[in-house]
Amino acid sequence: MEMETNDDNTKKRTGDAQEQGESNAKRLKCSIEVEAFCCDVCTKPLRPPIFQCTEGHIFCSSCCNKLPEEKCGFSSGCTGTIARSLGMEHAVQSILVNCCHAEHGCAEKIAYYDNYKHKVLCTHAPCKCPEPGCCFAGRVAELLDHLTTHHKWPSMPFQYWVPFDLRIVEPGSHVLHCWNDDQLYLLSVQPAAEPNGLAVSLVCVQYKSASAGCSVSFSLSARHCSTSTSDDLWPWWHFGWPPKEYICFVPKVSDGPDDAGIMLTINITSVDAADENDDPDDSSYVETDEDDDDSSS
């Protein structure tokens, strides 16, 4: 594990810090054994709050809560009492590492204990192709081009909170491209385990900083209508491809020709997009004569 320093080049680093608005504190560049900043019980990276017994054993908050009567008991014979270790907390908070996706454009410095979380959420992470056996990985736009040209996936543009129709003639995969933030969503329609029906799954490609949900409706005839909703959409690699989890099941009916397919009405929502659409200074309302009559009555 690497830690940054400006000990030998203080003037240059101070100038950089002033430009970037960072702290002018001196930093060491050295190698440290990862285990030195991991919980002695679960071996996961330590994060505040951190606890230490009087004999030097270090615990994360989760493991500390499992110890009886605030006694260590980590190793045989250790009866040291446990207290908060502010010094260790300060130490782990000062350890900053480069994002593993720095070569793809991420310039963030992350606390070591948040490294994995950032790795998963980083928008600079290459987007992997979900097709089994395909090793392609690239930016969002590159993945969209790859799926549509190499794998011949049909694509559909959409906007958050705006329902759109998608006709499904046969089982397969579709890529949905959002105009709001260029995010990609993947729709899978596969024969269901249940007889005479289709399982519809909807997943995203990258994690979103805000929650994304969806509703999927289908109408096979006046007698066959249904709507399913999901509050959270997860990246496809949580489930594998094609996903085994599905948002709705479409039964097979014989009210029309088989080649007509099914019509799905999809509405993908996003908290971020909803906030952007909320305009506190919205002046689109125009007073009418009816309003004047109502107010005078």
TrEMBL record:
<feature type="region of interest" description="Disordered">
    <location>
        <begin position="271"/>
        <end position="297"/>
    </location>
</feature>
<dbReference type="InterPro" id="IPR013010">
    <property type="entry name" value="Znf_SIAH"/>
</dbReference>
<dbReference type="Pfam" id="PF21362">
    <property type="entry name" value="Sina_RING"/>
</dbReference>
<keyword id="KW-0808">Transferase</keyword>
<dbReference type="GO" id="GO:0061630">
    <property type="term" value="F:ubiquitin protein ligase activity"/>
</dbReference>
<comment type="similarity">
    <text>Belongs to the SINA (Seven in absentia) family.</text>
</comment>
<feature type="domain" description="SIAH-type">
    <location>
        <begin position="94"/>
        <end position="152"/>
    </location>
</feature>
<keyword id="KW-0833">Ubl conjugation pathway</keyword>
<feature type="compositionally biased region" description="Acidic residues">
    <location>
        <begin position="273"/>
        <end position="297"/>
    </location>
</feature>
<keyword id="KW-0479">Metal-binding</keyword>
<dbReference type="InterPro" id="IPR049548">
    <property type="entry name" value="Sina-like_RING"/>
</dbReference>
<dbReference type="InterPro" id="IPR013083">
    <property type="entry name" value="Znf_RING/FYVE/PHD"/>
</dbReference>
<keyword id="KW-0863">Zinc-finger</keyword>
<comment type="function">
    <text>E3 ubiquitin-protein ligase that mediates ubiquitination and subsequent proteasomal degradation of target proteins. E3 ubiquitin ligases accept ubiquitin from an E2 ubiquitin-conjugating enzyme in the form of a thioester and then directly transfers the ubiquitin to targeted substrates. It probably triggers the ubiquitin-mediated degradation of different substrates.</text>
</comment>
<dbReference type="InterPro" id="IPR044286">
    <property type="entry name" value="SINL_plant"/>
</dbReference>
<keyword id="KW-0862">Zinc</keyword>
<protein>
    <recommendedName>
        <fullName>RING-type E3 ubiquitin transferase</fullName>
        <ecNumber>2.3.2.27</ecNumber>
    </recommendedName>
</protein>
<feature type="region of interest" description="Disordered">
    <location>
        <begin position="1"/>
        <end position="20"/>
    </location>
</feature>
<dbReference type="GO" id="GO:0008270">
    <property type="term" value="F:zinc ion binding"/>
</dbReference>
<comment type="pathway">
    <text>Protein modification; protein ubiquitination.</text>
</comment>
